[in-house]
Write a structure and sequence with these properties.
four-stranded antiparallel β-sheet; Aspartate Aminotransferase, domain 1; Aspartate Aminotransferase, domain 2; PyrdxlP-dep_Trfase; Arc Repressor Mutant, subunit A; alpha/beta; about 450 residues; DNA-binding; aminotransferase; globular; about 15% strand; transcription regulation; 3 domains; single chain; eight-stranded mixed β-sheet
């Protein structure tokens, strides 16, 4: 791999995607200009990569139309299972794209709120207070479970969701993704079965692939996981974990119903199943929204929280709440892997949570989400789109558009018009599946140019 040219590596990525079905026979590959824009490669690199694909017989050039996958290029024999890192590479690539902002493009599929939604926090205001609360400790590693003051504030935050916890039941992390990684490392061995929602949070799928886990998909409905499918799977399989999102599900924006939440807690007790309740969008929802963690009171649930989407992704502060024995183990694992999390960042969040300004910020944030959600739903209704769930407030909506059975085709059509969306197949454990749905960020949906493009 070290001796391959950039064009060879780029063409090898397409070969893998053609073989695994991401691009099917007859599909048109992205244009030269789209590849240059998406990947940052030079025109010569992209041309050389496409010429390699043509020489190898994977694609054919059609004059004036572009490059298309040729008949008979897919492997007929069942390929050997690739190593975990190779299986996770597509997710790694997708995550890289999420962090790239293309000039002149509206990031409709972006997973983060606009910066202006968070700017009123003015992080520079808190620097002096952070330094006043013990400057000498900022030059040392922090507590393995996290900053004590922050964990006390997190106890109060959880109480607002009717989740009772003590500081010893909380371990801080470098955001929600680090929290998920710690849980996977602790509970999942290569070959283990793990339950996930479909569609679901695609970075989670990459982490599980990297660990060598076998994912069992449970369809996500508008009121939560499909309980019938879950019961059917549990008749023959014994998974250790079920990763769910009670509130503000990413990507569908759906919330679990009280009935589903109660059934899920009962099933977890019957089958000795640990529920990992990822609540990274909690601050966009009212505290009264039901969560399985609140029903279970952290007996068989692990609650994952984050401040990346409500304060700042740059601070990288998240946490896990659970029973004391599991939190102790996760704290030891965190210490082994990272020594500690950032004392400075955690103290910053501790100071922010202690101010009344933060509550006012959350009220403004939720009001912005409510307004943007209502406007987005109206736009989608006007153009005849189907919406999966209709929340009062959310950062995302999950929609499908008339005449498009594969959202990847819609993605290719919108890109030259300046709009970048997140097609549904990336949110599936099997990314080669055709999916008509797409995730849309409500902060960017209320755009007359987009409405005109979609209407056409």
């Amino acid at each position: 791999m070290a001796h391959q040219t950039l064009a060879q590596r780029f063409s090898a990525t397409f070969v893998e995607q053609i073989v695994n079905g991401t691009y099917r026979i007859g599909d048109r590959l992205p244009s030269l200009r789209e590849c240059m824009r998406l990947h940052g490669y030079s025109k010569n690199t992209v041309i050389n990569a496409y010429e390699l694909l043509t020489t190898q017989g994977y694609v054919e050039a059609r004059h004036g139309q572009g490059f298309f996958v040729k008949t008979g290029t897919a492997k007929s024999a069942e390929p050997e299972d690739p190593p975990p890192y190779a299986r996770a590479m597509d997710t790694i690539w997708l995550m890289r794209q999420q962090f790239v902002r293309e000039p002149g493009h509206s990031p409709l599929g972006e997973g983060f709120p606009p910066v202006e939604w968070l700017m009123d926090m003015r992080l520079d205001r808190f620097t002096r207070q952070i330094m006043r609360t013990g400057v000498t400790t900022l030059f040392r590693y922090g507590n393995r479970l996290g900053n004590p003051g922050l964990r006390q504030h997190l106890v109060q935050k959880l109480a607002g969701y009717t989740i009772a916890a003590t500081p010893r039941q909380i371990v801080t992390t470098h955001g929600a993704n680090h929290a998920l990684d710690l849980i996977i490392r602790r509970f999942v061995a290569p070959g283990d079965c793990v339950l996930v929602e479909n569609p679901g949070y695609y970075p989670l799928f990459g982490k599980l692939q990297l660990q060598g886990a076998r994912m069992l998909a449970v369809p996500r409905l508008a009121d939560g996981p499909d309980i019938d499918v879950l019961r059917h799977v549990l008749k023959t399989q014994r998974p250790k974990l079920f990763f769910i999102q009670s509130v503000g599900h990413n990507p569908t924006a759906s919330d679990i119903s009280p009935s589903k939440a109660h059934q899920l807690v009962q099933i977890a007790e019957e089958h000795q199943l640990i529920l990992v309740d990822d609540d990274a969008l909690a601050d966009y929802k009212p505290t009264s929204a039901i969560r399985v963690s609140a029903l279970d009171q952290l007996k068989r649930t692990l609650y994952v929280g984050s401040f990346s989407k409500s304060i700042s992704a740059a601070l990288r502060v998240g946490f896990i709440a659970g029973n004391k024995e599991v939190i102790d183990e996760l704290g030891d694992l965190k210490m082994l892997l990272h020594t500690s999390s950032s004392e400075f960042c955690e103290r910053a969040v501790d100071v922010i949570l202690g101010e009344g300004h933060f509550l006012r910020h959350l009220m403004r944030l939720q009001e912005r989400a409510r307004t943007a959600t209502a406007q987005s739903l109206q736009l989608l209704d006007d153009i005849g789109a189907e919406v999966f769930a209709r929340p009062e407030q959310s950062l995302y909506l999950w929609a499908r558009f008339p005449s498009f059975d594969d959202a990847r085709e819609l993605t290719r059509k919108l890109l030259p018009k300046g709009f970048m969306i997140a097609p549904g197949h990336i949110f599936s454990p099997v990314q080669s599946d055709v999916n008509p749905w797409t995730r849309l960020n409500v902060a960017y949906l209320n755009n007359p140019l987009l409405k005109a493009a979609l209407s056409r």
